[in-house]
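Data card: per-record layout.
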Amino acid sequence: MYISPMLLQRTDKPLNNYDNICELKIDGIRLILSTVGDKTNLYTRHNTPCNTQFPELLDIGLPPDTILDGEVCVTDNQGKPCFESVSKRFQTSNTKKIDILKYQLPIQYCVFDVIRYKGKDVYNLPLLERKEILNDITENNHISLVRWMDGDNSEELFNLVKQEALEGIVVKRKNSSYQINKRSWDWQKIVNYQYYQVVIMGIKKREHGVLISFPNEASAGTIEFPFPPKERRALWGLINQLKLDEDKNVIYLDSKLMIEVKSRGVTKNGYIRTPSFHRYCI
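The structure for this 282-residue chain is written out next.
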């Protein structure tokens, strides 16, 4: 049984507030786990079934007729969630390869909420009561509960996240219900963005995309998200001045235009992860 999960609003900085709780934001894949019916089923937030990709979670001793919400992740050798690794698990559907990856890239399901428990809908209960229900869940090698703190520690927790280069934090109202299929200000996420100065090397013609490199000329990847309208007009106004060459796919530019992008870090192959425009560097 699939439940469309409650989504978070984004805010810029945490504010200490005892009416809230705060948790680490796990850098993984949102996962709804359901034991409603005759078997366990796994779904992404977009209702994509993923029993095949994460078979370890199909028999972890959860009560029948229960629905949990959490994040599935893979940690690196420092114990930090690695999005590339969990993405590799998610993108693999070959059962023989999955049998190997189960040992190379073991997963952990980090549970932060419960929607239904032992046949009873609990999503209308206050958050802290749902957290108490979660305490009955037995943790093991593949399932753990997300730890939380009172919201008056939000700023301290976010500073620790920045120090350790983690994904961010989540702040939730203590009395909030679980609002199915809704994005609510009762839950807010504060992402620990990283900022990089890069050079624009080219613009894709047939689809949106800006090719970027680091100042040392190493490729930084592609900006797939559109620039804001004003900044996009400014970029196109400079194309004729900066154009070096072009082919059917790309207009190549002289590497004089530097911008700052924000992202969630750098991938293992050295590319900036999902960069987006932040500002021009003048």
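Known properties of this structure: The chain is about 20% helix and 35% strand. The mean pLDDT is 94.

See the next section for split statistics.
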